[in-house]
Design brief:
With 128 residues, the chain is mostly helical. It has four helices and no strands.
Length: 128
């Protein structure tokens, strides 16, 4: 189950990185927004699947959920990613400049949280 968790989370992270890359370097292309949205959706789906894999894995192994900092940082990161994704969708529905700004800054914060959580997960797994 750890392989499933790691694969889903890595795929979610890489999808988010691809979405960020498109925003930074491909905005002059006509397709950039569609690709950015789709990659964001893939990232969220993968992160949620990875979270579910972690819940099942911990339930089978120890049953003690949120017993390590990686788990707490993980739930904060998942919630941040969901908030970023929601703000990204909402900026087109309610047309308030603050929502766009929120999406941009939340995305940056989520990216940093993901990096920190990847490092903490690698420490937890004994890889680092």
């Amino acid at each position: 189950m750890i392989i499933t968790h790691a694969t889903c989370m890595l795929t979610g992270f890489l999808s988010m990185v691809a979405g960020i890359t498109i925003v930074l370097f491909m905005r002059e292309k006509l397709w950039w927004l569609r690709a950015h949205r789709r990659l964001g959706t893939v990232a969220i789906v993968c992160l949620l699947l990875g979270f579910m894999a972690a819940v099942f894995m911990v339930a089978r192994l120890t049953g003690r959920h949120f017993a390590v900092p990686h788990a707490w940082l993980g739930i904060i990161t998942i919630l941040s990613a969901l908030g970023t994704y929601t703000a990204g969708l909402m900026q087109f529905k309610i047309k308030i400049a603050r929502v766009r700004l929120l999406h941009r800054w939340a995305g940056r914060g989520t990216f940093v949280l993901m990096i920190l959580n990847i490092v903490s997960g690698l420490f937890l797994a004994g890889i680092l």
